[in-house]
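User: Predict structure, ligand S-adenosylmethionine.
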Amino acid sequence: MGWALGIGAALVIAALLYWQLIIAEGAYLGRRVVALLYDWSAHLYDRIKQYDSGYEAQFLGRPLANALFAFPNALVLDVATGTARLACALFPEVGFRGRIIGLDLARKMLKHAAEKTRRWSDRTMLIWDDASQLPFLPDCFEVVACLEALEFMPDPDQVLAEMVRVLRPGGILLITNRIGNDARLMPGRTFSAAEIEAKLSGLALEMVQVRPWQVEYDLVWATKPGFCTPDPPRDVEAVLRCSVCESGITRRDGTLVCGQGHTIPIAADGVVEMARVRKDL
Ligand SMILES: C[S@@+](CC[C@H](N)C(=O)[O-])C[C@H]1O[C@@H](n2cnc3c(N)ncnc32)[C@H](O)[C@@H]1O
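Assistant: Predicted complex:
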């Protein structure tokens, strides 16, 4: 009897661990656990995902490049950029001439992102920081994306609100919504198509379109109301703000310094280490 109870308890614990660590990828255990799991697996990420470059171009790179054709100096923000999937789909598109900022909380994912985007390094900025409080001024990006990541955030609504805050009027929001069997095991982090449409409409977005994409994800497009005219070239520093005090940032002697004197290091691989100055991470 005792051994049967022991086996039962072990099976329950194994099932819980599988759910929390493999399916939910630490999502209910806090953002540090999520980042730690991605740091551990960063060297395997691309091999596990096996993104097909033709498929990526067809569904991500080309539609975004077409949408940005009239914006030669477009700024694109990729929240939870991982190993720079979006940049690798968008930069090869001849119609795209803008810049991409990729932000992620897993430092080792960004190390790989830096290697993969080296040939476009003059048009890329990678930032180590948390998505729940984006270190940017309002209304500054023509596109804000977040692919295969919203469900791992402690508060997806807060991240969505932040993404909309930094999106320019007339700009495009591009996100994924997890679907399929595993989505049912992530309550509060995944949504039906109707729920995600209602969330984005509630954030005053327009033209919300939920499109089937992969087995596990729908792709969701939406537009922020208003109109944006093409801008002259902007330094990416011009859209940054300090994660501690929210003041503006300038580049000084290989680091970034905010108006209140917080120094944000830039690592040897070029990653802006905003997470180092944040006390809440
Ligand atoms: C499945 S990967 C997706 C990466 C990339 N967008 C892609 O489609 O390949 C999820 C990413 O979300 C990042 N992430 C999770 N929670 C985060 C947070 N709170 N802030 C920033 N990034 C986060 C992880 O570090 C990881 O790189």
